[in-house]
Design brief:
CATH class of the largest domain: Mainly Alpha
Strand content: under 5%
Largest sheet: none
CATH topology of the largest domain: Growth Hormone, Chain: A
Number of helices: 18
Distance between the termini: 41 Å
Radius of gyration: 22 Å
Helix content: over 70%
Structural class: mainly alpha
Oligomer: single chain
Number of strands: 0
């Protein structure tokens, strides 16, 4: 009987953790469809309105490592509840905002809460399930992220079309309140405050936040909005990063132990995570240009074709986790990278020849490959992480993925545009666009090959140590 009660409690806790991942992902995607309505309602330019999405992403990127560290120090359950309170309150403030400035401020606060919702569930799930089922759990959480990404535009479109842009943030407020109640009931407070001997490294946190802010602004177009050249922000990021390393070496309780990053296995996993994050952005930022200008699809048809990616991710996440448990994370990771790289090559060849069917074929190949990699990489990293560092390590995984997203969002469109012979995309022929599309995905396949080389090197290093 006690085992049945414990299993039911663990299932409710997993529902709460999965819901946190879903809500944080939904917070990104549901706001994107609100931008046109916000521009009309608040009489704002597109360049100004984009900060509604950008502020959220920047806050998540800046705070995700610190969020994991706070969970290690003060208890994951307490910090998760605090994150839900912040997310819900900020969503309510966004609902009531009467100017763009207040809305952007609310979204930044919401992003700080979302950083906690993204980092802690992955670390907490490790302690709720048997070690033999960690891979399945990572696959489930990956599926929730994909569902949130896929659900946001359609749900937001329905709500905004029926009730206006405030309805999207009202939905996030209601969802946050429900999830907060579920979390407080489903996840018990063990009374353990975390690492009693540790403390928060506020100096290191400030320097890391400064470095990430400058880097994020330089790669997401924020530099344009601030009137600053991108190179000055990159220089600021480098200086702040140097100050961060110096601060970490000087403190007894660092935010990110520098010695931990000397671990080749962890460093390799984070580098692969960054590369795969950049590759994942290829279909999101380059795909619409090819579908719209190269194949002549309208917005509705383009959205339907691209929706196949998140749907495939949602369907393949849990099976990817089961496979990780069955054959081990190392083999699953290699299989995922091989499938993703083959899918990238398919993107370079099939869509220009077979149009929409070729595009869908490539998506069906590449998306399960990503899910296999993510489930296996997360499982391997958390399996090797010490309990006192699991929140921080989970935050590093999220940070490397977000940095990859931002790098891919800026680099891959540049690769695509550089192959149009100096012409704007509107002035290019369908053949030129198809050629640029192929070249971009061959470049992405090169990044996938680099990630595979890193995986092989990491496996060889583990064998030497063992």
């Amino acid at each position: 009987m006690n085992n049945q009660v414990n299993d039911a409690t663990d299932r409710r806790a997993m529902v709460a953790l999965a819901g946190a991942i879903l809500l944080a992902s939904l917070g990104i995607s549901i706001a994107t469809v609100a931008l046109p309505a916000l521009a009309r309602s608040l009489s704002a330019d597109v360049q100004d309105v984009q900060w509604v999405v950008l502020a959220y992403l920047l806050a998540v990127t800046i705070a995700i490592v610190s969020a994991g560290r706070l969970g290690d120090l003060y208890g994951s359950r307490r910090v998760l509840v605090a994150g839900l309170v912040l997310f819900t309150a900020a969503a309510a403030a966004c609902t009531a905002a009467n100017s763009l400035h207040w809305l952007v401020a609310g979204r930044a606060a919401q992003g700080l809460g979302a950083a906690i919702l993204m980092s802690l569930p992955v670390a907490m799930a490790k302690g709720l399930v048997d070690q033999k089922r960690v891979g399945s759990t990572m696959g489930l959480l990956g599926t929730m992220s994909a569902i949130g990404t896929a659900l946001g535009p359609s749900l937001g479109g329905l709500l905004i079309g029926a009730f206006g842009w405030r309805a999207a943030f009202a939905w996030l407020t209601l969802s946050g309140a429900v999830l907060l109640a579920l979390t407080m009931k489903a996840i018990s407070d063990t009374g353990k405050p975390g690492n009693r001997n540790g403390r928060m490294d506020w100096a290191g946190n400030a320097w890391l936040a400064m470095a990430l802010l400058c880097l994020a602004l330089s790669t997401t177009g924020g530099a344009v909005g601030l009137g600053m050249p991108w190179w000055s922000l990159l220089a600021g990021a480098a200086l702040a990063l140097a100050a961060f390393v110096r601060a970490e070496l000087a403190t007894d309780s660092p935010l990110v132990p520098v010695g931990l990053l000397r671990d080749r296995s962890l460093a390799t996993s984070l580098a692969m995570n960054l590369l795969v994050g950049a590759i994942m952005m290829s279909t999101l930022v380059v795909g619409p240009f090819f579908l719209s200008f190269g194949l002549g699809l309208n917005e509705g048809a383009t959205g339907l074709v691209m929706a196949a990616g998140p749907i495939a991710a949602a369907l393949s996440g849990v099976p990817a986790g089961h496979l990780t448990d069955r054959i081990g994370p190392e083999r699953t990771l290699m299989a995922g990278l091989a499938l993703a790289t083959a899918g990238l090559c398919c993107f370079a060849v099939a869509p220009p020849r077979w149009h929409v069917p070729g595009y869908l074929l490539a998506l069906v190949m590449i998306t399960p490959g990503f899910q296999l990699f993510l489930a296996a990489n997360n499982t391997a990293v958390l399996r090797d992480a010490a309990d006192r560092h699991k929140g921080m390590v989970s935050g590093l995984l999220g940070l490397s993925r977000n940095l990859g997203f931002m790098a891919g969002a800026s680099l891959l469109p540049l690769v695509f545009a550089s192959q149009l012979d100096g012409q704007g995309i509107a002035a290019s022929t369908a053949r030129d666009i198809a050629r640029a599309f192929s070249g971009t995905f061959f470049f992405a396949a090169g990044l996938g090959t680099l990630a595979t080389v890193l995986a092989c090197a990491g496996t060889a290093a583990k064998r030497q140590l063992s």
